Input
Amino acid sequence: MSVAPLAPVRTCATISKLPIEKSQPTNQSDLSAEGFRFAIVASRWNDGIVSRLIDGAREALKQLSAEPDTIEVFRVPGAFEIPLCAQKAAETGRFDAVICLGVIIRGDTPHFEYIAATAARGISEAGLRTGVPLLFGVITADNINQANERSGNDQNNKGYEAAMAAVEVVNIFKNSFSK
Output
């Protein structure tokens, strides 16, 4: 009995050499935030960085024609509190999407892993429970420099990216899933 040759194994070294690129939505020019309402749930912990994420999210929404009065910001103490507040905002029925923003920076204890995992899981579960898109714009960084790199005044700002994703998803919902 002959055995078929095995496919080449991709090791971590092989995978790390693969190009990683973000794809753009096919009809990005068709994206519009007009007529949609957005909640931004943001932590106060690491406020200097989170404030830049909020600014990035507002800028993305503004670029896509959201009116200022269609955006409501809710501040919570830290990333641990984001999922519950985001779920409550979604449950009101007032928002088409909830943008979740925060910064968790690794320290010397396992606290980082618990908070990061809980925030990610909670945001995901709240979105599934409510059926409202909850977008993950929580930076998890090893150090302050990494967090600052992801919260700059450009399109690499994770708040900006989360808001752009929110608009894309609400447009998908409207165009593909509404009656």
About this structure: The chain is about 45% helix and 15% strand. Helices lie at 12-16, 47-63, 82-91, 111-130, 144-149, 158-177. The two ends are 57 Å apart (CA to CA).
